[in-house]
Each structure stands twice: as structure tokens, then as C-alpha cells.
Amino acid sequence: MSDQQTAISRRNFLKAGALLSGGLLISFTIPQANRLLIQDATTAFAPNAFLRIGADNSITVILSHVEMGQGIWTTLPMILAEELDADWDNIKVMHSGVDKDYNHTVYGIQITGGSSSTWSEFDRYRKAGATARVMLTQAAAKRTGVAIENCTTKNGYVIAGGKKLSYGELATEASTLPVPQNVTLRPPAQWKLIGKGVKRLDASVKTNGQAKFGMDIQFPGMLTAVVAHAPVFGGKVKSFDASGAKAVPGVKEVVEIPTGIAVIADHFWAANQGRKALKIIWDDGAGANLSTKTQVDAYQKLAHTDGLKAAQKGNVDQGLAKAAKLLKAEYVFPYLAHAPMEPLNCTVKISNDKCEIWTGTQLPGIDLAAAARILGMKPEQITMNVVFLGGGFGRRATITSDFVSEAVHIAKASGKFVKMVWTREDDMKGGYYRPMFVHRINTGLDASGMPIAWRHNIVGQSIMAGTPFESKDGVDSTSVEGIADSPYFETVPDHFVGLHTAKEVVPVLWFRSVGHTHTAYVMETMVDELAHTAGQDPVAYRRKLLQKSPRHLAALNLVAQKAEWDKKLPEGRYKGIAVHEAFGSYVAQVAEISIDNGKPRVHKVTCAIDCGLAVNPDGVKAQMESGIIFGLTMALYGELTIEKGQLQQSNFYDYRIARMNESPEIDVYIVDSNEKMGGAGECAVPPTAPAIANAIFAATGKRIYNLPIMNTPLKHIS
Amino acid sequence: MIALKVNDKSYQVDASPDMPLLWVLRDLLGLTGTKFGCGVAQCGACTVHLNGEAIRSCVTKVSRAQGQNIVTIEGLSLNNDHPLQKAWVEFDVPQCGYCQSGQLMSAAVLLRENPNPTNQDIDDAMSGNICRCGTYPRIRQAIHKAAEMQKEGGKS
């Protein structure tokens, strides 16, 4: 690093203190990860952790959140470029390294999750861009002698009097100026990017094979490792014989690690052939007693009793006693695997007193800390290179750092540079599933058909238990979200929501839209059933119940209008509706189906979302399409089962994913809204399954209480 | 040694004849645009062209490809300007992007064989390629658009 650059860094560090004490969210250090990169000769101006401007006019936006398909690679640069007044064609993007500067503005750790990247970074990235624009303008004023109030910016230039100076040529000068404490942000009326939309910045590299995923990391000396894992959840290696594996050409090493036996070879194929030749005797442990059937039986039994209180109002027993009509229902939801298209993998290079890691992770800081613990290193000895994630859906965010830890153990035990690769089967059987859940409901309607009492008990494993996010009162909010806070209970005077938290050896995890994957299904099919019981139209009935929930109503009304809810469909077509809030966004969907050979076929889904300001409207639409198809897969096919502690599914032939020929036509409408911003990545998933199930009821008169739907043969009413 | 011709370049690889073409391309030749998704011809992420046909390279032994003409995503066009690639960018098709090499290679054969694919044709040709992000509606749009571009451009 040159003296001048060191001086720039130091100056920026000094500025940080002043700014932080001034209460600004923005942080003005040059983080460790970026200090290396500032040596890049083109970087002339690095005013904060999120932006670098090169003398060549390049604008590099550094992402505190990772790209896994949701489009943040484009949306965060949009927000920053809007305030910077940058030339969009010069924008480059990179993931950040690990540094506290990139901690989530609300959650306090470096995480991509909870559909939060856009709303949580909106202010920080706007301020980062605006601050730089002010400094560039000041530099231009200083150089030209034109008063600053007579300087303007346009598309990567400062216009000072008659002179037009590019950001690149002003960058070095701007870097010597003090960082302004308060900057004025552009009013929405002046926005050119926010709310308008641009094309994805990662589309090109994702159409020519150039995009680098963790799976694509290669460097001289790197070997590939695969791991034989216990076939039974919680099982351990008792003994093993590696001689067969070592005889496979290309196999270099076989090592035991805490999670199994790793075979390390010149390339994946040799490693995988070597694994097949391993002889391992496993100690199955208590997990061998687990089977889906006994688990469901036990959960159903528990669901007949009240669990720990998650929500309560009035007296549910008295309420039920007053009811004119009683209804009960029991729902069963299976374990689900995220199954991202890129199976899990992680590359680790340990040399001397340094460790370098390449992986696609939603929790880079947690993973780095796990590696440090395993290696007995300090965090600053470890570099985390986050590459594109070939799908995440929550699976690449484990608090236990399961796959990163495993790769680090292999590198440590073998002394080799290794890329650990999981096969599809490893990925499917490797745990961290959406938990299995059972719900039991007793509800009472008054004479007019409206609910007056509701007892609701939920049984399932806790995702948060054992993590720093574990709740103190024993009620994991992710098990009850969407029910404990259901808007429908606003008008139900007597209700009780209880939770039984089961303990199993199967690791569980957040899965795209988390608790809402099952709670929305229960609430939206149950309310539909109540509407039918009351002899009322499902939309009209929901409108009555949602009078105090204007954002639910806005989404519901927009989708009903766009899908022409009141219009009769052609012969053989049926529709169902659902509305649900998740991650601060309100989504309503109408599914249009037919029944062909006893199976539902989803022809069309109409979707309305109120997410507040839609920063990147086409990105929001893409996430609605994505969530709907994810929800359709979950509704129709999603099911994992366990026998004697072993997962019964292994690949896409027995864990089906919706394909092109099953993909419905999708129409998305965004509510024009100035309400609080919500997320987009997950909220489209929850309403899809209940909208389909409600359409199936319209077609067949049959309510589906157990997912997936394909387990239930269907017949037309006619 | 096995002789391979990939994207108009000749290679000699030291591989066992039963090694799948996918791993030869990725691990021996460094052509990582072709992806590993399932290993059992279920997801299509590994789709490449063998003498112009779309094949699943994860279940194709390298011996079968010996001396044949192989095209991978890296060789689909010279400058990312195949009508499908242009349409993919225009419709913002990719999300995570991991399956898209395979999607494009399947679509390229469809479009060559059938310059005017219907929705049914697209279903038939593309249902072997899984996208967990659910980009199917945009893939469908982009294929229709590429068909138009192909006609206008007079390309066969």
C-alpha cells in the first residue's frame, strides 16, 4: 500500500469516529476486506464501505447482502446510484468481505435473510451515494472556482459553470475533503431509478457461463472432497476401512472428520468413486427409532392439548360454548428440503497462518467465526470470499455453519486445499429441513356465520432453539407467525393459540417464508371453510373479517378485481383465493385450476402485493413469480419422509420440483402504496398453496388438510 | 488419452472412459459454465450439445463423446449474442442463475429445430430442465422473443 493510500485510509478511519458520534448510520471506515482492494490503482475515491470510484469513472458498489437470485445485486446499486447521480452503465458490483461495517442495520450481524435487504439498506445506501455526490461537487467547485450552489450533477458528471467534470477525474480530489455530516436526499419526485427499474446487472454473466458460484472455484493445488455422512440422523462413525477408496485412481487422502469420512481426490469423479469404495460401520444412535408415522401420531396426540400460550384473548372455552356452530380441523405438514439448484459446497485453503474460504453463504460472518474456532485462528487471519449463491432459500444460512465447518475440518485434517462438494443426495439427506408440523383447530361461529371463538394448537420443532435467537418464554415465534398475529383474530373475541415444541434429532431450519409456509395454509384454508359453512362468498367473508387490516384489504381487493373474481370461469375451471402478510408485505393470490385425471392443474395465478414502495418493480414481480412457483412445488409435491431414522428421498425423481409444463401463467400487480416497506423474496410463497387448495375445494368439494396435495386423489363434484 | 473437440478446440484428456463428460468439462478442462445439479439426468443443469443434440453430460460417459463435436455454454455464441442470450437479458430471466446454462442449451436446440415454437413445444422441450427459482414464465417469454429475433435476423 502506498503512503498516499495509507493516508487516505487513516483519514477515513478518523472520520468514522466523528460520524458515528453524530449518529449517522453510515460508517466511514475502510474495512479490512476492502483495504486490500484499495491497492487497486484505479480506486481513487473510497468515501465509505459501500462505494469506490475509480479514476477511470468506474463506480463499484459493495454489497452488504449477497445475491442468491433475489436481485439485490441490482437493487442496492440502484439505491446508491440514484443519490450519486451515477452513470448506470459504469456500475460494477461486488460482494463485501466480512466486516462489522456490513452488519445488518437491524439484526446486527452480517446476514442476508428475512426478505430484509432492500428495506433495511434503503437509507444507508442512499446516504452513501448522496455523501459521495456532495464531496464530488465540492471538489468540482474548488477546482473551477464556481460557487457550489451553481454546481449540479448529471449522469456521472459535475456541471460547474460551463465545465463538465467526470466523477473519475474528481475522485482523487474528493477523497481529500471532509465527509459532510448531513446530506440532503433527493425527493421521490426526482427519482430516476428508484421505483422505475433497470435491467439486472448479473443477467449477462448468468447467460454465458461466466458467473462464478462456489461450485466453480478452481485454483492450482486444489483437490475435491466428498463426505460419507451417517445414513441415520445423529449417527456417528464407529469404524471404517479406507483401503478400497485409496485404491481408486485419483484419490489422494481419506480423513475422518466429526461429520463422517472425507475422500479427497484430484477431481469430483474420483472422490465420489472413492466414497463408494469406503467401508464404514456406523453407530446409528437414538435416531434409528425415528419414523414419520410415529412422529405424526405423537404430534397429533399432543395437538389435542393446549400448548404454551402464543396468543390469547378472552376465554376460548366460554366462547366455544356460546357458538351456534362448531368446526374442527387437523392439519399435517411434512418436512421439506430447500433443494437449491447448486448443491452445498465450500472451498478452503489453509496456508501458513492464513485461511481463505470461498462459498455461497447467507451468513459470512458467522461462518468465518466458526472457521476461526475450528482452526484456532483469529478472525483477521481468515478471508471469506462470498461468490454467487446458486439458490439459498434459507439453506445457506445455518447458525451452526454446517457445510463451511465441514469443509474447514477436511482442510485441517488433510492439510490439503480442498473444495468440498455435496451431491444432490447429500444435499437432500443432509438435514436442516422445514420442520414437520401438526395444527389442530376448534372454532365456533355465531348465528350469522362469523367466527367468535378459536382454539389453535401447533406442534413442531423449533428452528430458533439452541441459537442466539432462542426465545426466553419457550415460544418460537417462527412456529406461530401468521397465526399468533393473524389479522382474523382482531374480530374473534375469544381465542387461544398454543405451541408444543417437539425435540427431534433431525436438524431444522428457516425455509423460504419460514413459519408462514404452514400457518398461511391453515388460516387461509380454514377461513375459506368458514366462509363456505356460513354460505358466504370467500372474498366478501374475508373483507368482513379484515376491516381493521387495510393493507390486507388493499391486496385482496386488487387481486379480486384483476382476476375478475365475480365473473364465472369457463366450464371445468375453478378458482380459489388467499391473502397473507409475511415479512412486512401483504400478498393476495387467485389460483385458477382444473382437475385432470384426479390431479390438479394450476393454469393461472393472479397476484397482488402491497410492499410499500417497490424500489425495483420488475424485481418485485420476478420475486412474486418465483415465490408462486416455489409455493406451487411445496403445495403439490413437497414431502420428505423418514423411516428408521433415514430419509427416504434422495434426488429430484422422488422429491419433485415443478417444471416448465406445470408452470402457470402468472400476472402480478403492485398496490400503489406509501406504507412501510416490506420484503419481496418470501412473501409470495405463503398464499399459493391455500389459494390452490381453495380452488380444489371449489372443484371437488374436498378440503385438503395434509400436504402435499398430490397425496390426495381428487374427483370433480359433477 | 481421450481426444475431445469442445467449442471448436481440440483437447487430449487423461480420464477413465467411464468418467462422465460433465466432470471432464468442469474439473479437467476448467469449463465450469456447465453445472452439476443432480448427477442422474433429472434437472438438466449439465446440458451440452453433442453433435448438435442436447444431452445430459452428467450421465454421458466421456468415451461416448470421443472425437465428437461438443458445444458448451461457453461456445453457444462468440459475444453473448445468440438470440436466446439476448432475449434472456432483455427479460431479466436469470435469478440465482445456476440452472440457466442448461436452460439455454436446451432452448438452443429447440429453436434450431423449430423456429416457431408454440407453448406446447416449449413445454415439451424444456420440462427436463428444473429451475428452483421459478424463472419458467420468463424463459417461455424469452424463447418466443428469441424466435422473433431469429426470424428478423434471418438466422437459421
Describe the structure.
The complex is a heterodimer of chains A (718) and B (156). Chain A is an alpha+beta fold and 718 residues long. Chain A has three domains: 3-190, Aldehyde Oxidoreductase, domain 4, CATH 3.30.365.10; 215-285 and 344-421, Aldehyde oxidase/xanthine dehydrogenase, molybdopterin binding domain (Aldehyde Oxidoreductase, domain 4, 2-Layer Sandwich), CATH 3.30.365.10; 304-335 and 433-711, Aldehyde Oxidoreductase, domain 4 (2-Layer Sandwich), CATH 3.30.365.10. In chain A, 30% of the residues lie in helices and 24% in strands. In chain A, strands 10-11-8-18-15-16-17 form a seven-stranded mixed β-sheet, with helices on both faces. In chain A, strands 13-21-20-19-14 form a five-stranded mixed β-sheet, with helices on both faces. Chain A starts with a helix and ends in an 18-residue tail after the last helix. In chain A, 57% of the residues are buried. Mean pLDDT of chain A is 93; it is low at 1-39. Chain B is of the alpha+beta class. Chain B folds into two domains: 2-75, Beta-grasp domain (Ubiquitin-like (UB roll), Roll); 83-153, Orthogonal Bundle (DNA polymerase, domain 1). A five-stranded mixed β-sheet of chain B has the order 2-1-5-3-4, with helices on both faces. Chain B is globular. The N and C termini of chain B lie far apart (36 Å). At the A-B interface, α17 of A face α1, α3, α4, α5 and α6 of B.
Q: Report the sheet with the most strands of chain A, covering strand number, pairing sense and barrel closure.
A: 7 strands, mixed
Helix fraction bin of chain B: 25-40%
Element-by-element helix/strand order of chain B: EEHEEHEHHHH
Mind summarizing the main beta sheet of chain B? 5 strands, mixed
Radius of gyration of chain A: 28 Å
User: Could you name the CATH class of the largest domain in chain A?
Assistant: Alpha Beta
- Please state how the strands of the largest beta sheet of chain A are arranged side by side: 10-11-8-18-15-16-17
The helix/strand class of chain B is alpha+beta
Name the CATH homologous superfamily of the largest domain in chain A.
Aldehyde oxidase/xanthine dehydrogenase, molybdopterin binding domain
Apparent shape of chain B: globular
- Helix tally of chain B? 6
